[in-house]
Protein 1
Amino acid sequence: MNSDDNIQNDSVVDAFGGSVTDYDRLMNEFGIRPIDEVLGLLPKSKRHYYMNRNIMFGHTSLEPVIESINKKKPFAIMTGIKPSSAEYHIGNLITCNEVIYFQKLGGKVYFCIADIESYADGRLPLDQAEQNAIENVADLIALGLNLDKAYVYRQSHQMDVMRLGYLLSSHATHNMMKSIYGEHRLGVYNAAFIQVADILLPQLHNGPLPTVTPIGADQAPHARLSHDFVRKKFFQDTYKFMLPGFTFHKLIQGLDGSDKMAKRNPMSVLTLFESNKSLKKKIMNAFTGGRTTVEEQRELGGQPKICRIFDLYRYFFQSDEKKLKEIEGSCRKGELLCGEDKKNLLGIIQEFMQAHEKKRQDALPKAREVVLERLDG
Amino acid sequence: MNSDDNIQNDSVVDAFGGSVTDYDRLMNEFGIRPIDEVLGLLPKSKRHYYMNRNIMFGHTSLEPVIESINKKKPFAIMTGIKPSSAEYHIGNLITCNEVIYFQKLGGKVYFCIADIESYADGRLPLDQAEQNAIENVADLIALGLNLDKAYVYRQSHQMDVMRLGYLLSSHATHNMMKSIYGEHRLGVYNAAFIQVADILLPQLHNGPLPTVTPIGADQAPHARLSHDFVRKKFFQDTYKFMLPGFTFHKLIQGLDGSDKMAKRNPMSVLTLFESNKSLKKKIMNAFTGGRTTVEEQRELGGQPKICRIFDLYRYFFQSDEKKLKEIEGSCRKGELLCGEDKKNLLGIIQEFMQAHEKKRQDALPKAREVVLERLDG
């Protein structure tokens, strides 16, 4: 495995801890290519605003997917969720948006409920994972997933994925996995093998096929592991898999100014289930690029680059490039003060969440049906 | 895990290499109890001759199975084969005899085709394993397995076994597995987890149930691992598994005088598929306890204790205690010479193999049906 050569335990990334310390080093170590490299292949009208804002910053092997988009040929979008909570984290929204974007461009979505991973990771019982997954899928439907072009499954009920996970593990040593992920219980390494099998499921079902798996940058080791396996002679001979494509997005930082949204630090995280009171508290206390006094802010202007409120606009609540620039501009000039900015955003989020909650409630029966569909055989 | 405490890499046993160096030390290290301890619970008429001959020398947790036998209550026999060859090794016959013996005492047989293990162990493709398994199952039917009281399955097609294997792996560290099995690829450790899941399958399907898995002494680590897992609070709380029972038999030694039958040494091994010529060659060249000259043998007598011909009688070809003693006695007294002894046995084996081959051919269509029955769902 190439992975042994240049990834050490002082890794730039923790795939199971959800963190990245240095994006340039990450790209270098994991062979992630700049997204700009392939944007020219995609008509402007078909680009996601994440691509223009350096949120979706990188890719590997995305070219065949873009070719399929342009030629209206089949391709698949692989995605999934570790059902460790019934509540979608706003970070999950990034992947959802990307998945739905690719689906609208013509792909079929494979949505994996990673219940074996949530067991390996935190010993979450499978039936609890199932309940959480129903809620998660309802969120996804509410956000715009078209179930007619989607295949939803649980790892623990997907025989071919479990089987391929075991076969993959026969090609892996402890040292190799330790060098990529650090020291873990064997179940966690198995979760990585199963995740590779998930990524290859569209090709298991359809034969060689362009696929894209949109992921956060912290998941780069899984992408790398999947390429390492697919390149092995055995898997080439047996399955003729194409290299799966990936897009990588930057992780959204903690609302409170911390580096990452972390559950143990509730003020850093926004879920799609905040009470009005909690939402208000979190937004009004969010870290901004504001100055110490109003006078200073009028004079020096705000700093959108480090502002978590501006981040929320950039990631979720202002898809229009021109309008985003207006917010940025009036902030920089000191015209738009943080308090007003926060109030505006709060209103937008409240409206979004109310509408979302209604759609989610409507989607729940369908979500239950889809999650429980494939019963133990 | 207790296993960490007293099993070192210089282990008395190699579970994946099929060897044991010291039976007393094995019993001590793996907590194997002498079979004599429970024989009193079983009427003499119901004992297998292996139990009287120190072939089936040990057990763990066999008491509930004996109680079920005596009270005609349900119990299960778990067994399986690594389908690495289409040809049953005569050593496989020991387990087959034990399994069929317990089935006749009222138990239901669960027969696992360990195709994930044969992949992990030697990269045997699953479809080749399937073909071998059909042959193996035909042998088993020919030997007397009653399919009406048996459940035959392939690991790679048994969803609940694969799932439980993954859950088990989440409770295991690399150090723990290394201390039991030595250093292996992760697929080999996974084969051990799946094997524990196999052992627990009768209880997964029926709830808590007395079970017996008859194994060769070299498989003691798997037995120990299964007990270690079942004792864990999580598995007690979730599944309420009973401790699975095991019987342990001594491994048959190499025909040529070597310690073990090994494929790389064909003269050491007898399969159920020898040509008449090959059979004759192997038997007539077998290592015996004979003396250097006929005169010496007449005077000192033979040594059945180290004789491989006598071993074949003891294990397979003379179930009658009295007749076995006669052979032993006339050998010791120098009356029965090795040449004659070999010729007698050769006739018996030829007859057995001819009859077996006919039964096996008749059983093949049924074996194919049973192995392929559970298709990918």
Note: Chain B touches chain A at residues 116, 119-120, 123, 125, 156-157, 159-160, 162-163, 165-167, 169-174, 177-178, 183, 185-190, 193-194, 234, 238, 376-377 (CB under 8 Å).
Protein 2
Amino acid sequence: MRTVPISDADDPRVAPYVSIRERDLAGRSDGRFIVEGKVTLSILLERSRFEIESVFIGRSRLEPLSEILAQVPPEVPVYVAPQAVMDQVAGFPIHRGVLACARKGQPFGVEKLLDAETLLVLNGISNHDNVGAAFRNAAAFGAGGVLLDEQSCDPLYRKSIRVSAGAALWLPFVQAGQGEDHITGLQSAGFDIWAMTPRTTAAELHQLKPSAKTAILLGPEGPGLEDALIDRCRPVRIAMAGGFDSINVATAGAIALAYCHATSMAGDD
Amino acid sequence: MRTVPISDADDPRVAPYVSIRERDLAGRSDGRFIVEGKVTLSILLERSRFEIESVFIGRSRLEPLSEILAQVPPEVPVYVAPQAVMDQVAGFPIHRGVLACARKGQPFGVEKLLDAETLLVLNGISNHDNVGAAFRNAAAFGAGGVLLDEQSCDPLYRKSIRVSAGAALWLPFVQAGQGEDHITGLQSAGFDIWAMTPRTTAAELHQLKPSAKTAILLGPEGPGLEDALIDRCRPVRIAMAGGFDSINVATAGAIALAYCHATSMAGDD
């Protein structure tokens, strides 16, 4: 492991870690993303498809993290700084004292996802927690990947990665284009697309039988999917008690994915 | 509507709103709780079982909120202050500019819940977001109430209420005792208790048929339910993909509740 002591917050070697929050919110244009915390670092090292560029840890964390850090490739620098210097670089207190920087690299093309039996498709999901939770659920229920439109927020945002329990680092995803294009491409590839909606005329989820290839399509928090999209797919609702017509969007996805997974498993027996 | 202008942050009439965060975290001993935001205020006024004591709003919100405020009973004061005074009282910026204070009143006894067909039972849920999400899901899927042990956190904490989409204000709940007592009481009342667990020997949720009375039991984030509790109930798992054995606890509850609701609805046809 190549540790590099950092004593000055202006050291150019830790420049990718400067003002993390502000740059995350503005959107990074340098092709990099930041990972925070021990669990996500360990997934980044063990099973991610992304190239790690550097690790940045608080000095007091060097010893407790030695097992994970032993997996850092020898050519990747592990910057080590006193906690105060680290906080000064990042612009806020890094309580966990563990950061890493990786490169997004070449994005997958949509064809990468089309062999999957189950896909999750996110349309206009603008909340990082919801995108992260959607990835966690997609991974838990064996979806082969996630397709996101350009309006949805970035799964490689620091908080999305954490909420995804690291799934955003290894579950294949493609973020490109619009819902209209997604529907055309998925239908050509043989997917039955379940557009999740509170419409009372939609089919009730638990009475459906998943097809060999099923895509679960989730729309924006608040307004939900546009009618023009729903009308091109199979509208599917989750039965709810009177007076309620909405649950959290990632939760709706979890219910649909769990049902597809359990039903297709039962079919395999 | 009785509006009362407040110009001084030390005015004793707004004392219940002083240092909201600190007092929320320490736990209030005065039998009051605070509600934040327009949607939750509206539920507090329209369908909650709690007695509202006062409303506290930023001056600029008086006009846009006039419709909701018209529902405030005439004996309840609506304190109105400049935003800066309001923030100074609360101890942090109240972006939405809407607070209300209500009394917890006499708690329900457990018997209040025992007529329900479906109950949600929370054991050691120590995260306010998860308690709030669990209430939102319980309401969406028609559970008759929520039973919480003493270790779980307070559903009337400001953030829990908000995440619950206000369900914590109207869905009956009882927070008392321990998991052991809950199991004894629910079984005496005829409930089939589904203890949600990743145990591979547990029954798979989607292959079960809910009983006339079903209770969904959820355990702490991380460790999950204790074996001694699971062994007294029907262990139920949600099938997941290899390598994953855990999803968010409120999400697990949502999947089980949605399945019970859809299955019992289908049985009613």
Note: DSSP finds ten helices and twelve strands in chain B.
